[in-house]
């Protein structure tokens, strides 16, 4: 039986389109859904995810495709679907709510709201049936409906208390009488805390699951250049090496998965996000400047080639992600059996490749093998042969059913990717990397900048959603990096104009620092501000650092003064959690030690332009 589309008809987000024919009558977030909840006096069931999310797919198959679940949801709730990548403002608010309630977070993010947007209950993935102390999804819906219908006072009390906590979070850590610490004090405290959590065997700073610690590694490299402390380089070297040798890095096609499910960086969560490539490439470049290891260069070049090959629009913008699943199975596109390799490469070459990359009959992932080099990096003498073998396997892999591509183009992530491409060009002098940075920047400026204001997302000729702090901060920094790499003066001019919008629309005029949404954004439950890094660098930190750099390049004191106000306003974060403030510490570094004279870079050769 064919289904009719639900209220998501007309949306362009690949994630929302995935749910277009669910029997659940999803609405997009907006005035119509909120008005309907008020008029019908029903709670909102808000479900937030993204197109590459494996557990989002699982919950869709188990629950949102279930006719009984859909009938109950449609009768007793207003179901609303949100793409977290298009609406990070909503995702941040309601992720904070779930973390307050459960001390955990993740996607899919499922939250029950009052019609006035206040949350009162929520969690992440819910299984279809109750068991092991966890409620099944339909059982949960019945309980929430019963509470809403019979004990509304409890719902109101929960919503009120939770909203108070969210407003406290949104205000950020109050600095009180604290002043921003000096660079030496803050950087030393941050390095000490990071060192205390270092995994001396596998690298990284957490237990499983392990996410690439890109912002912390970038900080450690800056601190190493400042102090020369060997332990700082040892942590960077160990972590970057193990990540590049592990299965989280795609040994055949280049590029990193979002995280490793184990401590060794062996088994990835197979989705590949643009921002991981954008953030890791500059760190590997910086490490290569310290130690010219071929592994670091190869990792950068293959990662940038992957983005160019698989995540780039024909006109230059970069897509958001590749799915974890293909043919409904997580990781199927990326794993191998020994006989498959031998069939493609022949017995001798196939045996060499299998032995080198740990591809065995028993496998290391559900009976198959994820190529990795964790048992030892191969001798340099056979690297050329292995490169040829990888290219042949990549060509063969391209004949498989590919994971889905989330082909929306996000301003913020493209800003990061411009920095990634320029870092590769400045390190290795490949002209294609500079051209990729230019075409990426030109695409965003042509398609997502309208009347001096940015939009956050573009797909199939349509740009949408007023941009956020990250969009302005990351793009301005990327354009500035492109200018520094010899891209052209117009990129400096564009970065300066974005800096002015940051001052006009995002600055906290009372305390200094930055709000995540502009002053003319739609009314939301809270207006968040934070200086802490997360999966992405802190937009507040990058905005502050970028204004310091723009102040030097454009000789604009107002940008430097805004940066000083921002660092003062985030003094609480810098004192309490300096290891979570790598982006703010970069800004503090430039303010205290000065901005270097302009570097002019062409064909991988950089020198100081004494005329700047």
Written overview of the protein:
Residues 6-166 form the Spermatogenesis-associated protein 20-like TRX domain. It comes from Candidatus Polarisedimenticola svalbardensis. This is Thioredoxin domain-containing protein. 51% of the residues lie in helices and 10% in strands. By secondary structure, the protein is α+β, with helices and mostly antiparallel strands. It folds into 3 domains: 14-170, Glutaredoxin (3-Layer(aba) Sandwich), CATH 3.40.30; 183-324 and 406-596, Glycosyltransferase; 329-402, no CATH class. It has a 5-stranded mixed sheet, with helices on both faces. A hairpin with a 7-residue loop joins strand 6 and strand 7. The model is unreliable at 607-612 (pLDDT under 50).
Summed up, what is this model?
This protein is 51% helix and 10% strand. The protein is α+β, with helices and mostly antiparallel strands and 612 residues long.
List keywords for this structure.
single chain; Glutaredoxin; four-stranded antiparallel beta sheet; 18 strands; 10% strand; globular; disordered C terminus; Thioredoxin domain-containing protein; Ssp411-like_TRX; Thioredoxin-like_sf; 6-hairpin_glycosidase_sf
Map the helices and strands:
Elements: H1 14-18, E1 27-28, H2 31-40, E2 44-49, H3 54-64, H4 67-76, E3 78-83, H5 88-102, E4 109-113, E5 119-123, H6 137-150, H7 152-170, H8 183-196, H9 214-227, H10 230-245, E6 259-260, E7 268-269, E8 272-273, H11 274-290, H12 294-310, E9 321-322, E10 325-326, E11 329-330, H13 338-345, H14 347-356, H15 383-397, E12 405-406, E13 409-410, H16 411-428, H17 431-447, E14 449-450, E15 453-459, E16 462-466, H18 469-484, H19 489-506, H20 539-554, H21 557-569, H22 571-576, H23 582-593, E17 599-602, E18 605-608
Parallel strand pairs: 1-3, 2-3
Antiparallel strand pairs: 2-4, 4-5, 6-7, 8-9, 9-12, 10-11, 13-15, 14-15, 15-16, 17-18
Helix pairs in contact: 4-6, 5-7, 8-9, 8-23, 9-10, 9-11, 9-23, 11-12, 11-16, 12-16, 13-14, 16-17, 16-18, 17-18, 18-19, 18-20, 19-20, 20-21, 20-23, 21-23
